[in-house]
Amino acid sequence: MNTTQPISESDLSLARETGFSECAIALRRALTTTPSGWLLAVWFCWDRVPTHSIVLWLGIAAAIWAGSLAVLQHMIGTGSKLARHRRQLRWIAGLDGFAWGLLTWFLMGYDPVLDAVLMALLCGVASINAQVYGTYVVAYYGQIGILLAVSVLGLLQTGSQSALDYVAGLSVFTALTVYYTRAISKRLIEGIRFQHANASLAAQLRTALQKVELDAATDALTGQWNRRALDDVLKQQVQQHAISGKTFSILMLDIDFFKSINDEFGHLVGDDVLRAFAQQLRAFLRTDDVCARFGGEEFVVVLPDTPLGTAMEIGERIRRGIAQTPLLTKPKVQATVSIGVATMEQGQSITELFAAADAAVYLAKNAGRNQVRSHVPMPVQIDAMQS
Ligand SMILES: Nc1nc2c(ncn2[C@@H]2O[C@H](COP(=O)(O)OP(=O)(O)OP(=O)(O)O)[C@@H](O)[C@H]2O)c(=O)[nH]1
């Protein structure tokens, strides 16, 4: 891991927040195993320490434990506010350290062997908690400080010969655990920070990839799908047609006399006309219909689940709408469109479908333009529908 890279303040605070949440969850897990530590202490002390001392210590420890667990449960339950709960967590850590520190007051000074065993138990608690508080080390410093202070006072009040040795041993041990926990915690926070940085980088890459994919499928001038996207849509439609038997139709639309628009108003206005045409066209379509610029002043519309008759009606609606509304008002540009309609037949290829639509456009142009024609003769002539 490259530790020379500077950690930005926002990344660092996000990592610390995550570290705090992880610590709260680890602490809850640790607290649920705490009673097994008490059992160990009670087992060692039984018959060696007066019962009332054991009961008193257990009572204090259990009360602190139950309160801590309840507060922690509440904190984790309201997870989104975890960052606001730092002070509570420090209190829990401190009180836990206090309860374990009290062990020296109530259970030590009765038997040298027992004292050594209990001392080892306290060192065990300090080292287990070094892991629990790894991602929120400030609370650990507080806990160890209180545990040490209470234990030292407890040991001194026992008046036992070995008390000073125990004080020295516990002090050295807790100082070492604090020292190493600090370094480990720094690494853990750094690791979390890298996780966040990687996740945000991955999200940025996903967004960039989606944009590239969209750009690759979109016609830059009109914002409609381009020919490549159209090919994909048609392949899907052909697959669905083969599976479900549902037919689909395409409209091929060719703006009439577009060259003269370019000649009269210039290419830039010609571009505006293409954009306006695409917009008007989209307004006639359903959300499932796919509109693509086929090239130049030609567009293709894919009408899923649409038989020829319905496709002819939709084509006619578009033709009439375009003829009635100017595409541009300044300068005023009015245009018409010739539309060829083709429907997917069983066993037909996409190339054959396009050829049929193209042939239908040719028929419409030959019939004087501003017409809708199909690749097969319709039982009801579309001319009769035209107003
Ligand atoms: N402004 C502009 N013009 C384009 C674009 N793509 C193609 N054209 C022009 O569209 C015109 C198409 O002309 P033609 O194929 O002769 O067809 P038309 O004038 O529409 O005549 P008919 O289709 O027979 O009614 C050409 O002048 C092309 O230069 C474009 O992206 N922008």
TrEMBL record:
SMART domains: GGDEF (SM00267). The keyword Aminoacyl-tRNA synthetase does not apply. InterPro entries: Diguanylate_Cyclase, GGDEF_dom, Nucleotide_cyclase, Rev_trsase/Diguanyl_cyclase. Its EC number is 2.7.7.65. It comes from the Bacteria. Coiled coil: none annotated. Pfam families: GGDEF. It catalyses: 2 GTP = 3',3'-c-di-GMP + 2 diphosphate. Residues 246-377 form the GGDEF domain. PANTHER family: DIGUANYLATE CYCLASE DGCM-RELATED (PTHR45138:SF9), REGULATORY COMPONENTS OF SENSORY TRANSDUCTION SYSTEM (PTHR45138). This is diguanylate cyclase. It comes from Massilia norwichensis.
